[in-house]
Design brief:
Layout: E1 7-12, H1 19-30, E2 34-39, H2 49-56, H3 74-80, E3 84-90, H4 92-100, H5 106-112, E4 118-122, H6 126-130, H7 132-143, E5 147-148, E6 152-155, E7 161-165, H8 169-179, E8 189-194, E9 199-202, E10 205-207, H9 214-225, E11 229-234, E12 246-249, H10 253-263, E13 269-272, E14 279-281, E15 300-302, H11 306-311, E16 318-325, H12 329-340, E17 344-349, H13 350-353, E18 358-365, E19 368-376, H14 377-391
Parallel strand pairs: 1-2, 1-3, 3-4, 4-5, 8-11, 8-13, 11-12, 13-16, 16-17
Antiparallel strand pairs: 6-7, 9-10, 14-15, 17-18, 18-19
Helix pairs in contact: 1-2, 1-8, 3-5, 4-7, 9-14
């Protein structure tokens, strides 16, 4: 995360999810954020101010009338130097207060008196979340420009299952990280492919590759963080969908091709990160092939070249290709870019990148070679998005 020297006020309201705020504080402080904690009286019934003070390294504030604040104006002073207020968990009661401008304790009062943006991470029982009054509050908050992180659906402390579960701390930290990213692709629609494809041999065997999908998912998240409307077409991977990204799951190259053909009609940018199988089995068996005494021969036929097809459209989106090579990286990447007529291609060594959490990427375009260095894939994806944003044709 790129959060060094950011200043966040973390508000905690009463709810069992308050225990997650401790981990959220740890994640933010580890990323370089200065976290100031304000708790409601109800929040202190679930987690102690001592815990939050130890994790944040700062005084925890709970009282609207705390005399330690100059002029007893904690509701003014505590948020004036903050870049963002995050309330996690945000209870149904607290959401209703903010939506209607009620201010009867320190946290609600400073939210009403704030100058910086406000992000809420709702946490409540499914019936409370679906209650018409809560939904009215939610709409008012959205209309007022309040940012929402979640909630998610899942098991709840009460034993019920449904919407209202607070996002996990890492997800909220990612939403905070997203807030601070420059919106270089605001208003753009980006289509990304990621992961491997699988080509069936019979009902239980496939031809595939070792792509983990990590780079493609990082690119999708980076584009979304940059303000784009992102659609992600993914092969079979065990990765969580980046928040705010529309995901389409496919298995084979042909399925990915069909999904891309539908989605690309409205795309401004197409980023082909997926490791699409070059070949598929021509006559795959309808039943499991039994082991014999000899070898097994498979007849293969070429799969469609999805990137080439998109780049050859009469009015193609801005196309970005990926080249994972095992040798002669610069030569093969340049050749691939020219052959497919791409404005931009990103290249890396397959043996260093596939399945790993970090990589080293070099970009090639008409202006030459642009090394992005080595680092975590999200960091590289953000550098790619920054380069891409600067290269997109400007509308007149």
């Amino acid at each position: 995360m790129t959060l060094k020297d950011k200043r966040v006020l973390l508000g905690i309201t009463g709810g069992i999810a308050a225990y997650k705020s401790a981990e959220l504080t740890r994640l933010l402080t580890r990323a370089g954020v200065e976290v100031r904690v304000v708790m409601t009286e109800a929040a202190t019934r679930f987690i102690t101010p001592v815990t939050m003070q130890a994790l944040s390294g700062q005084t925890v504030w709970t009282d609207l009338w705390d005399a330690r604040v100059p002029d007893n104006m904690g509701h003014i002073e505590l948020s004036r130097d903050r870049d963002l207020i995050v309330v996690a968990p945000a209870s149904a009661d607290f959401m209703a207060k903010v939506a209607h401008g009620l201010a009867d304790d320190l946290l609600s009062t400073l939210c009403v008196a704030r100058r910086c943006p406000l992000m809420l991470a709702p946490a409540m029982n499914v019936e409370m979340w679906e209650n018409a009054a809560t939904q009215r509050s939610l709409q008012l908050l959205r209309d007022d420009g309040v940012l929402l992180a979640g909630p998610a659906a899942g098991d709840q402390a009460c034993g019920e299952i449904g919407m209202g579960r607070m996002l996990e701390p890492a997800q909220i930290a990612a939403e905070v990280d997203n807030f601070f990213q420059p919106k270089l692709l605001a208003g753009k629609r980006v289509l990304v492919t990621a992961g491997p494809t699988e080509e069936p041999i019979d009902p239980v065997r496939v031809l595939t590759n070792v792509s983990s999908g990590k780079m493609g998912f990082a690119v999708a998240r980076a584009a979304r963080d940059a303000g784009a409307d992102v659609t992600l077409v993914s092969g079979p991977v065990a990765l969580a969908t980046p928040s705010g990204v529309a995901r389409i799951d496919v298995r084979t190259a042909e399925e990915m091709f069909e999904a891309v053909k539908k989605a690309v009609k409205s795309a401004d940018v197409f980023i082909s990160v997926a490791a699409v199988s070059d070949y598929r089995v021509k006559n795959r068996a309808s039943q499991k092939i039994k082991k014999g005494n000899g070898g097994l021969s498979l007849e293969l036929e070429e799969n469609p070249d999805i990137l080439s097809w998109v780049a050859a459209l009469p009015k193609p989106p801005y196309c970005v290709g990926f080249a994972a090579e095992s040798e002669n990286l610069a030569q093969y990447a340049k050749e691939k870019r020219l052959k497919k007529r791409l404005p931009l291609i990103a290249a890396n060594l397959a043996q260093e990148a596939l399945g790993a959490d970090d990589s080293a990427i070099t970009l090639y375009d008409d202006r030459g070679e642009h090394p992005l260095g080595r680092g975590p894939k999200l960091q590289l994806a953000r550098k790619l998005v920054e380069h891409l944003a600067g290269a997109l044709p400007q509308k007149k």
